[in-house]
Design a protein that fits this description.
The complex is a heterodimer of chains A (about 350) and B (about 40). Chain A has 17 helices and no strands. Chain A is an all-alpha fold and about 350 residues long. Chain A has a domain of about 250 residues. In chain A, helix 10 runs antiparallel to helix 11. Chain B is built from 2 helices and no strands. Chain B has a domain of about 30 residues. Chain B has about 40 residues and is an all-alpha fold. Chain B starts with a helix and ends in a 9-residue tail after the last helix. The chains are: A mainly alpha (about 350), B mainly alpha (about 40). Chains A and B meet through helix 4, helix 14 and helix 15 of A and helix 1 and helix 2 of B.
């Protein structure tokens, strides 16, 4: 009997097939997002016409809730999964397009302040999560993944770090589940706390960008508050994302020095590989807008296109959050993550309130 | 050329999801700039 030989495939015909496979899921994202938009317009009008007291619920929340309802009841059928997974792609394209609404001067001014706050947030979060991991006797690499996930940018940071420090799949699944569950909670609690504290759009946007881990959830948490808060949340979150390479590199060097990960050869190439390229796209579009490459009408069209991309993202946030799957991952990493997130949210809120007083926002 | 070399050569030209998102957004921006899409409704 001949042995079965596994030969690596040169994937020449795959791009076309992959494109076809994502279509049903992308259509589902579009349908849920658009249903959210219709519900926002019609539910409010219906309630008003019938003299009901009903809060104005934004399309962002409708899209997320509809997605959550599907994923946690009937589940997402296999045919839609590849397309639903593209929600991060739409998020990044939306962020690049959002660059047209920022003038370079604003980015330098706000980016400078946020860079200082981001640096404080990253150092504080990593130190606190490492401390918590030791108190709860979590495995050291699981602690590293939770620390990176909560300090920098959620799932992307965990995936980047997993490869760099040779963490096992179980540890990364634990940390991803904890970060996703806590991101979903942050999405609903941040706007409530922001309104309760009467935070300005600027202060709230800064807080959402600093305190919410995943970029999609940070964008949604900002959009649930106001358009201006959403813009700032995206800017601050992108600044955090830009730090991913440095943090992952530091962890890779640390674990390599302990002989538990491969050594990093070319550090500049490593940083470039991990750097989120959409941040560069965002800056490029902003430079073009600043030098009036686009007229006013075109900037409006780009902003609307960015909204459509975010609409698909928000539907995807709901659809990929399956609390039943998360429950299977166990309680301890979730408890550590929850304590860490609450402390980090309080810490970043104190930072933002301090900065607001200092700069008179 | 061995299969491994062909795989490595093919992978060298693969763009990340991140980069594809930037390419798509820039292409859309250029089309809007060129007037192909004059108005995007919301």
């Amino acid at each position: 009997m001949a042995d079965v030989i596994t030969v690596p495939q040169v994937q020449t015909a795959q791009p076309g097939l992959r494109f076809l496979r994502v279509i049903p899921g992308v259509l589902l994202l579009g349908a849920i997002g658009y249903a959210g938009k219709l519900l926002e317009q019609n539910v409010g009008a219906y309630a008003k016409a019938h003299h009901w007291t009903f809060p104005n619920i934004e399309y962002v929340l409708w899209a997320i809730v509809l997605g959550l309802a599907i994923s946690n009841t009937v589940g997402v059928p296999e045919i839609f999964r590849a397309g639903v997974a593209t929600y991060e792609f739409w998020l990044k394209a939306g962020i690049v397009l959002l660059g047209s609404r920022f003038l370079l001067g604003d980015i330098v001014k706000l980016g400078g302040v946020s860079l200082v706050l981001v640096a404080i947030e990253i150092i504080g979060s990593i130190a606190f999560m490492t401390f918590l991991g030791r108190v709860f006797k979590l495995k050291p690499k699981l602690t590293s993944l939770l620390a990176v996930g909560s300090a920098v940018c959620g799932v992307s940071a965990i995936i980047a770090t997993r490869g760099a420090i040779d963490a096992d799949d179980e540890d990364s699944s634990f940390s991803i589940a904890a970060i996703l569950a806590l991101g979903a909670l942050a999405l609903f609690t941040f706007p409530v706390i922001g309104h309760f504290l009467h935070l300005s759009d600027r202060a709230y946007g800064l807080w959402a960008g600093l305190g919410v881990d995943n970029t999609a959830e940070a964008t949604a948490a900002g959009a649930l508050y106001s358009d201006a808060a959403s813009k700032l949340a995206v800017l601050v979150k992108s600044t955090r994302n830009a730090m991913i390479g440095f943090v992952v590199l530091a962890y890779a060097i640390y674990w390599a020095s302990k002989g538990q990960a491969q050594t990093v050869g070319n550090k500049a190439a490593f940083l470039w590989q991990k750097f989120p390229k959409f941040v560069l796209g965002f800056l490029l579009i902003s430079v073009l807008a600043t030098y009036q490459f686009f007229n006013k009408q075109q900037v409006g069209a780009l902003a609307n296109l960015s909204r459509w991309a975010f609409l698909l993202t928000f539907a995807g946030v709901g659809l990929r959050t399956d609390f039943r799957e998360m429950r299977k991952q166990g309680l301890r990493p979730f408890v550590v993550g929850a304590i860490g997130e609450i402390v980090i949210a309080g810490f970043t809120l104190a930072l933002v309130i301090g900065a607001s007083k200092l700069f008179g926002w | 050329m061995s299969v491994e070399q062909r795989v490595a050569a093919a992978n060298r030209w693969k763009l990340s999801l991140d980069t594809w998102a930037v390419v798509l957004a820039l292409a859309a921006a250029l089309l809007i700039r060129a007037g192909v899409f004059k108005h995007i409704p919301w």
